[in-house]
């Protein structure tokens, strides 16, 4: 069982080192595919220096989801994971633990927990995002498994398609809804933090981004047969308050 980890980069020199080193440091080797959007900073040089075994493609693209799709098309591993350029695995056993769940041939996807950390202090957790209570019915409420923790058998991308590039922000929501709700892919939950994510992502950057996100969530639900409404989707913000204080023991 082989892993392919896909990282999309664009002017990511300030953060990509942690991402690269966390993949290279896994006890289970992985094919690391870096899709760069023709960065103008030192990103490509850092990838070649810090991860010489990584496969890198640097050229203009149509955004992060287009980049991810390029990586999926190049992947040769049985299991595909997405790790953003400013995210990283907190220890070297992440892929080993994920692989153990995929030993069950009936498991199509695995997800876990992640924490948001301050860019200036990577040990300072400011939000805990757990996948423990997720079920496919929660897509109707605007919830999805923490996508940076989402690993899936490559054959699902081949069968059901990759990221929809006509979505600006919520293509990850649409893809997980398509896999887990529409096509009922079987999943397993790993009750551990397996990704640290710096704060400041595009989907939570400002009010406009949130409006686009929620509009696309409603669209994704409609296109995948999920009955919902705008009140349900916006209700998720009340639950997110708990992520700021909840910390599993």
Regions with pLDDT < 50 over 5+ consecutive residues?
none
Largest sheet: 9 strands, mixed
Write the element-wise H/E pattern from the N-terminal end onward: EHEHEHEEHEEEHHEHHH
Give the DSSP E fraction (strand runs of 2 or more residues): 15-25%
Rounded to the nearest angstrom, the distance between the terminal CA atoms is 32 Å
Number of strands: 9
Q: Compute the number of helices.
A: 9
Brief summary:
41% of the residues are buried. The chain has one domain (3-243): Spore Coat Polysaccharide Biosynthesis Protein SpsA, Chain A (Alpha-Beta Complex), CATH 3.90.550.
Walk me through what this model shows.
This protein has 249 residues and is α/β, with parallel strands linked by helices. The chain has one domain: Spore Coat Polysaccharide Biosynthesis Protein SpsA, Chain A. Helices cover 35% and strands 23% of the residues. The chain has nine helices and nine strands. The chain has helices at residues 16-24, 43-50, 64-74, 94-102, 154-160, 171-182, 207-223, 230-234, 236-243, and strands at residues 3-9, 30-36, 55-58, 79-82, 87-88, 109-118, 121-129, 151-153, 187-198. Strands 1, 2, 3, 4, 5, 6, 7, 8 and 9 form a nine-stranded mixed β-sheet that branches. α2 (43-50) links the parallel β2 (30-36) and β3 (55-58). The longest helix has 17 residues, at 207-223. It is globular. The two termini are 32 Å apart.
């Amino acid at each position: 069982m082989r892993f392919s980890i896909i990282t999309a980069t664009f002017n990511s020199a300030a953060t990509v080192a942690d991402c690269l080193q966390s993949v290279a440091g896994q006890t289970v080797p992985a094919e690391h595919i870096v899709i760069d959007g023709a960065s103008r900073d030192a990103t490509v040089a850092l990838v070649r220096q810090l991860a010489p075994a990584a496969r890198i493609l640097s050229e203009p693209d149509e955004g992060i989801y287009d980049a991810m799709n390029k990586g999926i098309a190049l992947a040769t591993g049985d299991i595909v994971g997405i790790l953003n350029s400013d995210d990283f695995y907190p220890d070297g056993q992440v892929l080993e633990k994920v692989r153990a769940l995929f030993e069950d041939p009936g498991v199509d996807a695995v997800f876990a927990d992640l924490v948001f950390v301050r860019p200036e202090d990577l040990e300072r957790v400011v939000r805990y995002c757990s996948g423990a209570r997720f079920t496919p019915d929660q897509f109707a409420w605007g919830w999805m498994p923490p996508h940076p923790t989402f690993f899936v058998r490559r054959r699902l991308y081949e069968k059901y398609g990759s990221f929809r590039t006509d979505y600006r922000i919520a293509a990850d929501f649409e893809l997980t809804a398509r896999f887990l709700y529409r096509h009922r892919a079987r999943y397993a939950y790993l009750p551990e933090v397996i990704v640290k994510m710096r704060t400041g992502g595009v989907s939570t950057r400002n009010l406009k981004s949130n409006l686009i996100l929620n509009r696309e969530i409603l669209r994704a639900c409609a296109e995948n047969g999920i009955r919902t409404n705008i009140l349900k989707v916006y209700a998720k913000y009340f639950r997110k308050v708990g992520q700021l204080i909840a910390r599993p023991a």
